[in-house]
Amino acid sequence: NMIFIGIKPIMSYVTATLSQLASLPIVTIAGRGKRITQAIDVSQMIVKRMKDVGYEISDIRISSDLLESKDGRERPVSKIEIDIKKL
After folding, report:
1. Would you call 18 exposed, middle or buried from its count of C-beta atoms within 10 A (0-12, 13-18, 19+)?
2. Residues 31-60 pLDDT 10s
3. Who contacts 3 (Cβ-Cβ below 8 Å, separation ≥6)?
4. If you write DSSP's letter for every residue of 32-76 in order, what string do you get?
């Protein structure tokens, strides 16, 4: 029940989230680093543009993960998780 945001077009994540919400009560959209803004965009497209269906953001969590960079050092990378549920 988690959608990880990557390099695909935003609408593919919107479609994947909506198909998950058809069978699950809550779906989490997750983005790290540069993909945080895309995760927010996906959640807003679902909540704002799908007003007739009635979805809402139930929880937002922010944190950071330690990832190993190309030069071998660990560095913190910001992360966001947005829970969306049907009203």
Report:
1. middle
2. 999 999 999 999 999 999 877 778 999 999
3. 13, 16, 17, 20, 27, 28, 29, 30, 42
4. EGGGHHHHHHHHHHHHHHTTTT-EEEEEEEEEEEEEE-TTS-EEE
Question: How many residues are recorded in the chain?
Answer: 87
Distance, in Å, from the CA atom of 77 to the CA atom of 5, rounded to the nearest integer, reads: 14
Amino acid at 8: K
pLDDT, tens digit, 9 for 90 and up, residues 10-39: 999 999 999 999 999 999 999 999 999 999
Tokens of 25: 């009560």
